[in-house]
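hey so i finaly got around to running the thing on Penicillin-binding protein from Streptomyces griseofuscus. pasting the sequence first so u can double check i didnt mess up the copy paste, my clipboard has been acting weird all day
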Amino acid sequence: MWMHFNRKATALAITVVLLAGGAAYYAVRASHRADATPADGDVAETAHAFLADWQAGDLDKAARLTTRPAQARKELSDFRDQTGVTSVKLSAAHLDSASVAFRTTAHIDYLGTKATWSYTSHLTVVNDPAEHEPRVSWHSNVIHPDLPDGGGYTLQPFAAQSTPTVTDQHGVPLTSREHPGLEQVLNQLRDRYSASTGEEMKIRLSSAGDSGGGRVIATVRQGKTGRLRTKLDAGVQKAVDRAATKRPGVSVVVIRPSTGDVLAAYTTGTDFDPALEGVQAPGQAFELVTAAALLEHHKVTTRSAVGCPASSTVDGTAFTNPDGRQATDASFAEVFAHTCDTGFARLADRLSGQDLSSEAREVFGLGQDWQTGVTTADGAVPVLDGADKAAAAIGRGEIRLNTLNLASLTATVQSGSFRQPLFVDPKISGKAPALAHRTLPDGVAGDMRALMRAYATATGAKGAAFGGVADQFADSDQPIIGWFTAFQGDLAVAATAPEQAHQPETAESVVRAILDATG
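ok and heres what it spat out for the 3d tokens, dont ask me to read them lol
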């Protein structure tokens, strides 16, 4: 039995009910005046009949209860098919004259992502002069209040990953606004690990010409607000930011040697991150690896007299020292302390190409597939012979490194074993870190640390250090790049920077400032 309403009634709470055998049937009164506003009873009956048919999925029948059946049928079908609606529950909530407010609860399944969307809409019942029956005045906003009238628009769902909040290892949030030199790393982390924080679903209002765009009108499923904890350290990052700010072209990486954790990174790159992804000939900085290979293969000791000639010729290729240095009776420790290219080029003849390449790969982890948690280039040290091998020994020719690689080399010397750099825990990335085949023998590791301390003493640097320069192409806008690295306690720092002369002064000053601030 129908409830009857008078015009003063303002509240209505009748929910359309589906019977087990099909939709409830509501008869629409046929006797009334065509030129009058429908009576409250007619409004209620018509509205409920329309809502019941729509809820039951009988869109043809629902459309026939409107003033524009063809358009209503199309738009109701579009709502079901293009919005991914699997079912709707429609509940009349309020009657005001000929207007009925109703609550829509739509269940959506979009490419396997399910959500429930609830909102309030309105319909108006009028006397149709052509049919002489009460009908729902059809407008697109009967389906949703944001739908423009006249068709041509659809409500389209789309799934999006929630953007996680990236934090340091202590839970401190990291932002590119506070740490601009970390922007590319943070962008990568947010993009790469957004799926781990949960998928959200939104609804956008799209027209035929939007090509998948359009205004978002609702979020129907909230993604989990995630926090991505990294290995970074906000305190160390601040020290790096302060040291590197206003140093155009500088790149910095800080690693904890005992764990491989990347505590901080800085770059001024825009299209890609040169500190991590770029590679170039490192020049004298690679003599760290060459020295370790010579010591491990017993080709020299730190006290061996090897000399630092003004020039050295290998297979017809002449090598000179950028600063013109020479010392005929220099020991290997002195050759290392003064980054004597001619001495190292000549000593390369004592190693096979395989010796140098294996030292780089099997001890220092270069050229392996590093799984750091972000995109990185992991160095390249091919097997070479003759003059190419001599060039490789002093970081020229086909040797390729970046700032991250250099920091890792120093961390390996400090700890005696390679621990692959990590921006996130392998449990988060789902990738096992690369492993070295062997550690530095204790005696070699001790000699390398002593050599780096001697370099620091000779240059006035702090802790244990090493550095040099690499000449780029003559027409480069940065023809000289300084490479400098040092360790102090359980921190290994590396920096690269454009230089005005053949000394890594800018790179060294950045590293020195970081160690001063963190020591």
